[in-house]
Amino acid sequence: MISSVRGEVLEIGLDHAVVEVGGVGLAVYATPATLAGLRRGQPSRLATALVVREDSLTLFGFADDEERELFGLLQTVSGIGPRIALATLAVLAPDVLRRALLDGDLTTITRVPGIGRKGAERLVLELKDKVDAPSAAPAMLPTTANGANPRREQVVEALVGLGFTAKPAEQAVDAVLAGDGADTDASALLRAALTRLGRSR
After folding, report:
1. For the chain, how many structural domains are there in total?
2. Cβ distance 141 to 155 under 8 Å?
3. pLDDT per residue over 115-166, tens digit each?
4. Which segment of the chain is annotated as a signal peptide (predicted)?
5. pTM for the model
């Protein structure tokens, strides 16, 4: 397994970054919060998990080993694949997720698109005894940053890549743009749309 990558960040997209390792550019899919911590042209290290399928090899990246372990743990539950696991970490910070699992907080868990009440109950049942108590209760999502004008089509495409269907993704992005998101950059717009999609469940 490729447990980590270190190298220059060549490109940062809405759902992935390209990191050069030994002259090879590796596409690493990650949450908006992880991607926000990267800088193009700067060296970086990401903890990673390689997901092998019959027709693909997909590398997922995380800010630290803790996130990677939660990513793997989530996938031990029936019905949770890598895309939903990544979406879970995009919506819920690790400490928030652990607290929700320990407390059986189904409302918080069902904020993740793709996880309904039954799925949340299954997560709590199977993972409650496998996670440690968080040291604190941080905010649900990282603070968004203001930047360039939003790029609607890119954000919708990124949401679809995370497992959302096109229509709800478009509606969420348009709702954010119609509110306070008109002047946010694409990454902030993606985070805000993820929050709206989670709350609409």
Report:
1. 3
2. no
3. 999 999 999 999 999 988 765 444 433 333 333 333 577 788 787 777 777 7
4. none
5. 0.69
